[in-house]
Amino acid sequence: MIKAILIFNNHGKPRLIRFYQYFAEDLQQQIIRETFHLVSKRDDNVCNFLEGGSLIGGSDYKLIYRHYATLYFVFCVDSSESELGILDLIQVFVETLDKCFENVCELDLIFHMDKVHYILQEVVMGGMVLETNMNEIVAQVELQNRMEKSEGGLSAAPARAVSAVKNMNLPEIPRNINIGDINIKVPSLSPF
Amino acid sequence: MGRGPSPLTQRLLLLLLRRAASAAPDKMPAVSKGDGMRGLAVFISDIRNCKSKEAEIKRINKELANIRSKFKGDKALDGYSKKKYVCKLLFIFLLGHDIDFGHMEAVNLLSSNKYTEKQIGYLFISVLVNSNSDLIRLINNGIKNDLTSRNPTFMNLALHCIANVGSREMAEAFAAEIPRILVAGSVIQLLAPLSAADQPIRAVVLVVLHHGQREGVVTAATSLITTLAQKSPDDFKTSVSLAVARLSRIVTSASIDLQDYTYYFVAAPWLSVKLLRLLQCYPPPEDAALRGRLTECLETILNKAQEPPKSKKVQHSNAKNAVLFEAISLIIHHDSEPTLLVRACNQLGQFLQHRETNLRYLALESMCTLASSEFSHEAVKTHIETVINALKTERDVSVRQRAVDLLYAMCDRSNAKQIVAEMLSYLETADYSIREEIVLKVAILAEKYAVDYTWYVDTILNLIRIAGDYVSDEVWYRVIQIVINRDDVQGYAAKTVFEALQAPACHENLVKVGGYILGEFGNLIAGDSRSSPLVQFNLLHSKFHLCSVPTRALLLSAYIKFINLFPEVKATIQEVLRSDSQLRNADVELQQRAVEYLRLSCIASTDILATVLEEMPPFPERESSILAKLKRKKGPGNLPDIDDTRRSVNGNTEHNNNNTETTAKVSSDLLALSPAPSAGASLLVDVFSESSAPAAADVYEDNFARFVCKNNGVLYENQLLQIGLKSEYRQNLGRMYVFYGNKTSTQFLSFTASVGSPDPLNTHILHPVDPTVDGGAQVQQILNIECLSDFTEAPVLNIQFRYGGTLQSIAVKLPIMLNKFFQPTEMMSQDFFQRWKQLGAPQQEVQKIFKAKHPMDTEVTKAKIIGFGAALLDGVDPNPANFVGAGVIHTKSTQVGCLLRLEPNTQAQMYRLTLRTSRDSVSQRLCDLLSEQF
């Protein structure tokens, strides 16, 4: 079983944390720090497995990680998982993210935390590997996006309008305009 | 949620972001890809622009305050804002800040009809709400609604949440629902955390394993069966044949058959891995055909490893090898096919030199388990050079650690010397984190495979020299145990430690071993003038001042042993013991040893000395204490079983532990070097412990009777404590002042006093007493008493306190008896006799004739009857020598009228006491109480 999935950057800033076993909040943060400490001091071409830190259960658990550019993807698993299998799973997860975000980078993870969670939920559920077929995962994510759009189409239009207007930095529009107003004043303002 | 900008804008924005990211990884323009939640993006950008931790915290607190006020505000938030705020909270949580609100809002989102809102609600709950939250009921409700909603999307969200939270309550709440839903969806997975192995699940999952078309579903089902099979293997035996069938279909298929689940040219690697795992829950199949089919599969997998790779990509080899390693695990688990085992071993041997570090790591790990199989142990041994090489050259500490494990597992008598030597030399450069483990392993191997014990002694001394700090007590205890139990190495050991101690700087552990061994066996090398007694003593004593207290204590014991072994150095040693730095040492243990040893050496005759300081008897043989320690360290089961350690020389855990426990109490941690002092110490401890055990105090009631006719006085007194009483009663109520006097000059600590009273009495302590009672001080406690009905049993006062470290416990019977609730009634002679006659029924009268215990003085008797509580009626009885009394006993429930008559017979020194009351139990009790008073 997968006990935890941690994604943090080269400075140890968490970008996604997902625990499948209950740990108190402060302990979660300590585990992230400990894991970062263990993983970050390792060279890039050493092996991808190491024994877990003391907080997460010591040598009964393995940390399996991959390092991509600025991000570490760390899976903490017990002995029932195949090391290489998990390693491939990380690859699948990252490739899926890449497909969903088109050249995924750290910023995508930051600004779309919720999306990343949803994608992860397609891969791992309750600490168990759920789906490993990338096409299947991407199809599900796209389905979700379509549903979001169909729901959000109306309510998001004004927000998009505001964002577009602000980006254009038009002086005549007051800065703190409220969404309801703009809907009336510039109803047909379209995105680029 | 927005449709998002057009693809072009998106691409441009992304490029912009990427450039910003590469320039300054922690900065970005305040624009996101422009989905709906702009506020969130702005907030995140703000956080990222914060220059310092303080600024970040400030910004977060501001945002938290904002969200809180939004949540608390009167205006109902729409789903979108709720979603936005919950998202912000999630982000704040990710940064490591506690989120103590918003849970309710998230739960509310569950009941939204919008997919996106529901989704974020579930996300928040599964990330942030722990399984014993108060909200779990509401959450369960939301889930239940979604499960029954017939909307497959909502159902999926709900199922996800159940799986991710995976708490017991949820499992119980939904265990019945889930198998029903389980038709074809990818929902099987979530059953695994739920442990219920009941009939419907079993039927369903087995069917899936058999017929399931979609590989993803079957993978999930296999995980579930594996979990269940570990809990109740018998119920899932049939899964073995199904799994073998599945596996063989995958393994023999051309990769095009399973297009969807072919990963870099490997057919369904995850499913294969899961199936092989499942098979590891069971022994090899008994059925020959099935077994043949499985063997065929395993052979095919092994064959495939030899084929040239279909792709250069690392993913291809990873997937292929994941299956291969799992197959090898299964082969090792079955441990029945020698050819397969040897093939597996050869395959692993190839991996040992693979350029991929991951494979080397896994190969070492698998080989560790392979080494314990009798079929492949020899085959594993052929790789010893490679493994040793790995130990020397591998750059990765976790790989080196596996190499150490493997060396340990493959060690036997034939290669022990080589392996121990390699481990010792590795120890000099080993990573600090694994040194202690290596030390333990070396110590165990050295002991287990020692043919000649001089090698063993050398090895351990080397260990101490190289990694003294990592040599735990168990290790050096062990070498001493072995030396003491084996006559043939004693001389050699003495000589070796003597030489090792010559080094200008040696580790304290070496001083300990040296001190002990020379103390016991120094005589064996004393013949040589280079190691004469005096030289030995001076050598040891030169280390004395550099050592910690426990080591010094051990050295002192070695000195007294020297006095016995070598009478010629007695004067020198006595001189040392007599010095102020010993006799007046600040440490109690050292001082005590110095004083006792000095006296012992002065008083005792040579014979007594020789008896007291005799050589230590051999240690009983038990399981090696260091092996036990290694097992503790690694956890049970992780250690490749090095067989029958019990056969090994000697030693034990218990012996050591006992000694450390007793001596630890006197601030030291030593082997019982010399029986005398440590026995003395434990004796002392015993004396303490005896008195410290709270004596199960009997209830003290000596003074009880004295209080029948009076209300004040001293109730209890011993050397420490005095308890005084003052009490007053009115009708059925009473108040008692209890005074506790500390008679000593020391404080009583943790002082408590409580009253256990029988049912008919209500006693209530008004003030609890202060837990400390100063020396010579008195504290007061007030008891309120209410009599509910008539009673016989008196309440007991329990007192406990700590005096000088020992717990004192006292129980005293409180003098609260029925007559305390007596109200005197004056009446005329006529009335008295009228009532006396009314109470004529036989059970209402109790009469007692008894001998006088005190001089028969009329005035005293009168005072006692009044003190008893009744009115003394003069001139009622025709015989003036008799006493007559009357009164009413008040209880909450009733009032009982009482008449009494006491007839003294001065000649016979006897009394006759008659009581008549309306209630027989009262008559009896009053008669008992009063008759004791004369």
Written description of the protein model:
Chain A: This is AP complex mu/sigma subunit domain-containing protein. Chain A: Pfam families: Clat_adaptor_s. Chain A: InterPro entries: AP_complex_ssu, AP_mu_sigma_su, APS3, Clathrin_sm-chain_CS, Longin-like_dom_sf. Chain A: It comes from Muraenolepis orangiensis (Patagonian moray cod). The complex is a heterodimer of chains A (192) and B (934). Chain A is α+β, with helices and mostly antiparallel strands. Chain A has one domain (2-153): 2-Layer Sandwich (Beta-Lactamase), CATH 3.30.450. Chain A has helices at 25-40, 83-101, 106-111, 113-123, 134-168, 179-185, and strands at residues 2-9, 14-19, 49-51, 62-68, 71-77, 124-125, 128-129. In chain A, strands 2-1-5-4-3 form a 5-stranded antiparallel beta sheet, with helices on both faces. A two-stranded antiparallel sheet of chain A has the order 6-7. In chain A, helix 5 (134-168) crosses helix 6. The longest helix of chain A has 35 residues, at 134-168. Among the domains of chain B are: 198-334; 450-622; 704-816, Sandwich (Immunoglobulin-like), CATH 2.60.40; 819-932, 2-Layer Sandwich (TATA-Binding Protein). Chain B contains 39 helices and 17 strands. In chain B, the strands form 4 sheets. In chain B, strands 12, 13, 14, 15, 16 and 17 form a 6-stranded antiparallel beta sheet that branches. Chains A and B meet through strand 2, helix 1, strand 3, helix 2 and helix 3 of A and helix 1, helix 2, helix 4, helix 6 and helix 8 of B.
What is the tally of helical segments of chain B?
A: 39
> What spatial form of chain B do the alpha-carbon principal axes imply?
extended
If interface size is counted as residues with C-beta under 8 Å from the partner's C-beta, which chains form the largest one? A-B, 79 and 92 residues
- How many beta-strand elements of chain B? 17
Radius of gyration of chain B, taken over Cα atoms and rounded to an integer in Å? 44 Å
First and last CA, distance of chain A: 47 Å
**What is the overall silhouette of chain A?**
globular
Estimate what percentage of residues of chain B fall within beta strands: 5-15%
Family (chain B): Belongs to the adaptor complexes large subunit family.
Subcellular location (chain B): Cell membrane; Membrane, Coated pit
Binding site for a 1,2-diacyl-sn-glycero-3-phospho-(1D-myo-inositol-3,4,5-trisphosphate) (chain B): 38-39, 70, 80, 84-88
Pfam families (chain B): Adaptin_N (PF01602), Alpha_adaptin_C (PF02296), Alpha_adaptinC2 (PF02883)
